[in-house]
UniProtKB/TrEMBL annotation:
TM regions (residue ranges): 57-77
Pfam family, any one: Lectin_C
Gene Ontology terms: cellular component: plasma membrane
MF (Gene Ontology): carbohydrate binding; transmembrane signaling receptor activity
Region annotation (Disordered) ranges: 117-175
Name of this chain's protein: C-type lectin domain family 4 member M-like
Annotated ranges, domain C-type lectin: 221-343
InterPro entries: C-type_lectin-like, C-type_lectin-like/link_sf, CD209-like_CTLD, CD72, CTDL_fold, P-loop_NTPase
Keywords per UniProt: Lectin, Membrane, Transmembrane, Transmembrane helix
Length: 356
């Protein structure tokens, strides 16, 4: 600095600069940077500086100061860089170690993933094989299904053919049954005619003979009187009852006699009456109570059938089924309890006793 009115002085400034230098030297030693510590101004500089003008001196001082500042800045930057570099190495080492750990973990993860991939690949191949086997099984089942459908169609066709054949046979059966009924009817008529031709000859009393009179509850037909019981007995008891009255269980030879007796019977649910026919001695050899064999007869279709040891004949007159007189005989067990029909011959040669 210069005193008022005197020439420009730079010693004070230089001293200050020297003091600054010393301060900076101390600062540089702290920062372990040396270039600024060797900055020395020669002693000849000071006289020369006194000759400069104030402006030039200020400029030089400013330049020198700027240089010193630049050097200080560079030195501090270098120091800071060295420190930053030292810290960066530690950070880098830590990051390197961390990266090493991460790499190890990644390697383990990759190894595990490869194992899982291998396992999944094996499972995928197993599933693929299972899928192929299932596909083969599906194709086999599909073939079996098609074969079964084909067989089913064939069976359906055969069923339809059998149904048609069954319907044809049913029609034939109905036609045969119809023809059989017609033949049975013709047979019954022929048997009735045959029975008439073989029936015992009944001598009609001469007009000079006394007329036949039947007792009460007895009914006259030709030369016989007939009794329709209201009580029931089994066949042997019925036979004994008729014999106790000097009569016998009815013997029926002609369609006219059959029709006469059938008309006498009341129609009901299943009105049945014993008459004098049995095959009790020899099965299927039907005989009358007087021992003469049956010729013809007025059996219902399918009778006699000896269903449950049926050895005695009875007449049915019912309103349940349509029946006619000449097809109303059935066979039944002789132990059944039924009403019965007695007959007593009143023609020539007959006994004179009349049951009362």
């Amino acid at each position: 600095m210069s005193t008022p009115g005197g020439p420009p002085q730079c010693e004070g400034m230089y001293s200050k600069l020297i003091d600054f230098e010393g301060s900076y030297d101390q600062l540089s030693r702290r920062s372990e940077a040396g270039p600024a510590a060797h900055l020395v101004f020669p002693s000849s500089v000071a006289p020369r500086l006194r000759g400069f003008g104030t402006f030039r001196l200020a400029t030089i001082c400013l330049a020198v100061l700027s240089a010193i500042l630049l050097i200080a800045i560079i030195s501090m930057a270098s120091h800071n860089k060295n420190r930053a570099q030292g810290g960066g190495d530690a950070v880098a080492e830590a990051q390197k170690q961390k990266q090493g750990v991460n790499v190890s973990e990644l390697v383990d993860s990759i190894s595990k993933l490869q194992q899982e991939k291998k396992q999944l690949q094996g499972e995928k191949e197993e599933q693929q094989r299972a899928k192929e086997e299932l596909q083969k099984a599906k194709e086999g089942l599909q073939r079996e299904k098609e074969e079964l459908q084909k067989a089913n169609k064939e069976l359906q066709r055969e069923k339809e053919e059998l149904q048609k054949a069954k319907e044809g046979l049913q029609r034939e059966k109905e036609e045969l049954q119809k023809a059989n009924k017609e033949l049975q009817r013709e047979k019954d008529e022929l048997q009735a005619r045959l029975a008439v031709t073989k029936a015992p000859v009944v001598t009609t009393p001469k007009s000079t003979s006394a007329p036949i009179v039947c007792p009460n509850d007895w009914h006259l037909f030709n030369s016989s009187c007939y009794f329709i019981s209201r009580t029931t007995r089994d066949w042997p008891e019925s036979k004994s009852f008729c014999e106790s009255k000097g009569a016998y269980l009815a013997i029926i030879h002609t369609p006219e006699e059959q029709t006469f007796l059938w008309d006498l019977l009341p129609r009901g649910h299943w009105n049945s009456y014993w008459f004098g026919l049995t095959d009790g001695q020899v099965e299927d050899e039907w005989k009358w109570v007087d021992g003469t064999p049956l010729v013809g007869g007025f059996w219902e279709e399918g009778e006699p059938n000896n269903h449950i040891d049926e050895d005695c004949g009875y007449i049915v007159k019912t309103n349940v089924l349509e029946r006619v007189a000449t097809r109303s005989w059935y066979d039944a067990p002789c132990t059944m309890y039924l009403p019965f029909i007695c007959e007593k011959y009143m023609g020539p040669g007959a006994s004179t006793g009349i049951p009362h």
